[in-house]
Amino acid sequence: MPRHPRLAFLSPSHVGALRQLGLLVIALLLACAPLTAAPTPFARLQLGQTTLEVATVAGDLVAPFDLAWGPDNHLWLTQLEGKVWRFNPATGERTLVLDLADRIFHRRSHGLLTLAFHPWFATAPYVYLHYVYQVPTRGAQEVVRSRVVRCRWDGARLGEPETIFDNIPGASYHNGSRLAFGPDGKLYVSTGDAGDTPASLDPARLSGKILRLNPDGTIPADNPNPGSPVWTLGHRNVQGLAFAANGRIYLSDHGANNDDEINLLEPGRNYGWPTIEGFIDRPHEIAAAKERRFTEPLRAWTPTIATAGLAYYDHAAIPEWRGHLLLANLKGRALRVLPLNATGDAITGEHIFLQERLGRIRQVCVSPTGDVYLLTSNTDWHPRFQPWMYSGLPTAPDRIVRLCAVAAADATRLAALPEWREDLSPLPLMSENWSLPPTTEALRAGQQLYALHCLPCHGPTGQGAPGLIPPLTNTDWVKNKNRLLQVVLNGLSGPIEVNGVAYQQEMPAFRQLSDDDLAALLTYVRASFENKSEAVTPAEVAEERKGLK
Predict the structure, then answer these.
(1) 309 membership: H or E segment, kind and range
(2) 3-state SS record for 338-360
(3) Rounded distance between C-alpha atoms, residue 134 and residue 151, angstroms
(4) Burial tier of 404 (Cβ tally within 10 Å: 0-12, 13-18, 19+)
(5) Which of 212, 206, 137, 153 is nearest to 182 (CA)?
(6) Three-state secondary structure along 39-63?
(7) CA-CA distance, 88 to 94, in Å (whole number)?
(8) CA 362, 185, 361 angle in degrees (round to 5)?
(9) Helix H or strand E segment including 288
């Protein structure tokens, strides 16, 4: 093969050296070059007169929870496992700015939840976070709480978290939450009912509430009740907070089997959960409303759509959506656009977009230029627990998707992309059902496993041994699914009380059993011995294993 004419005067060894040098230079250039690129459009969404480019900003995300536009003009994201990321919206380049994995309690739908930015970030560069943690205990009872912290931003990393509000009741579900600063400079914190539904109506309890705090965590003097952080009460599991241009605050709340809600919040109001679900239209709700004042929602959905993130759109970039609420849906797998009346105290319609296009949508936020960013949520625990509700979910990791208006002259460059339009009818949805009946196969397998592992101590009818081995018959230790899973995975040692009787006995851990075997065993125990409780699924066992040390 002829040598390059400019290299003809060089010896083969010199040519080889130059080639090695060239490869080194290329490697250095590649190392310095960004590994990301501009968001990739994959579809166009056609509104009335506006064309939106639908593009992926970032992918490869696992169980993200919150997405917010930061005052530094970057996107910020939290993951349930405890990480906070910062994204360049123009390139998708990401930076890990905080890792709280060793402090948070991540299992199922809890862990690191939401974030917010100090309203005067230029002079007070604080990022606020809400996360769930576990209280160390000697017994087998799981004690879960959540707290709000703030971290100082130095331009590259978030500093050591400073706790500003602590000891919020928590659980393995229904911890909320959203953080949002209002135009009044106050921090609004949503808390879930944490499985203790009566507490939502108790003004002295922190669960099932919207809390209003000063930026340092102290209680504002103008809260509805002096000395109390409670702003509103009677909520179930709030997933979205949004402030309109006129200062009104809107909330999205998960219903149980019915009545997901959008509420307009006013200080001191009671929104009814669990006494009132949705509108006051059933006999027991009408009767309760005669004894106590409740506030009805602006909108409710049955079957539930899993209302999630909420934003108020107030930009000329997408005129069709200006003055509307943007609502992310998990179960509904759509972006719902809800027009408001002139005073903002009524929702006057509903428009459904992107239905089943992206899967479950967890959060929505708006940039100062009017771009809309969506965060998908297809890799969290929920699809694993109820896969029959989510046919056709994207199999790829979660991602950040941008909706950006393009000028009419530029719309032709999107002509080759798939065109999406408004969905004219909602997706048919099933009601939520967490009380799965035990199958015959699980009961048969569980009975055999019980005879092998449990019967020698607890007896054939679960009666135990008086004063020595606690019973399994008609007991909260069996009916409390989370605690039961923790006991069989971690074992038990020390004093406990079962059905009012004290015991002190050791039980070994059974973590060596497979997820399928443990699910069958516990399903049998919970369905037998007068417990009459629903099944345990292998996915639930797998989730509890995540907490093993």
Answers:
(1) strand 307-313
(2) EEECCCCCCECCCEEECCCCCCC
(3) 21
(4) buried
(5) 212
(6) CEEEEEEECCCCEEEEEEEEEEECC
(7) 6
(8) 5
(9) helix 283-291
371 in the Ramachandran plot: left (φ > 0), alpha (ψ -120 to 50) or beta?
Answer: beta
Query: CB–CB of 78/98 below 8 Å?
Result: no
Residue with tokens 């960013």: 373
How far apart, in whole angstroms, are the C-alpha atoms of residue 527 and residue 398? 37
Contact status, residue 235 vs residue 193, Cβ threshold 8 Å: yes
Q: For the segment 377-428, what is each residue's pLDDT rounded down to a tens digit?
A: 999 888 877 777 887 888 889 999 999 999 988 888 898 999 999 999 999 8
CA distance 282 to 167: 36
Structure tokens at 228: 């109390």
Q: Left if phi > 0, otherwise alpha if psi is -120 to 50, otherwise beta: which for 174? A: left
> What residues contact 122, with CB distance under 8 A and at least 6 apart?
71
Q: What kind and span of H or E run contains 128?
A: strand 126-134
* Exposure string for 358-391, b = 16+ CB within 10 A, e = fewer: bbbbbbbbbbeebbbbbbbbbbbbbbbbbeebbe
Report the side by side order of strands in the sheet with 162-169. Answer: 112-117, 126-134, 144-152, 162-169
Half-sphere exposure of residue 358, counting CA atoms within 13 Å on the CB side?
31
Q: What mean pLDDT do residues 465-493 have?
A: 85
For 527, residues 6+ apart whose C-beta sits below 8 A from its C-beta are: 438, 443, 533, 535
State whether residue 29 is helix, strand or coil: helix
In tens, the pLDDT along 293-333 reads: 999 999 999 999 999 999 999 999 999 999 999 999 999 99
DSSP state letters, 134-193: E---SSS---EEEEEEEEEB-SS-B---EEEEEEEE--SS-----EEE-TTSPEEEE---
Residues 6+ apart with CB under 8 A from 412: none
CA distance 145 to 176: 12
User: Does pTM surpass 0.70?
Assistant: yes
342's torsion region: left (phi>0), alpha (psi -120 to 50) or beta? Answer: alpha
Whole-angstrom distance, CA of residue 475 vs CA of residue 525: 11
- CA distances in angstroms from 543 to 130, 248, 256, 516, 546, listed in the order given: 21, 39, 22, 13, 5
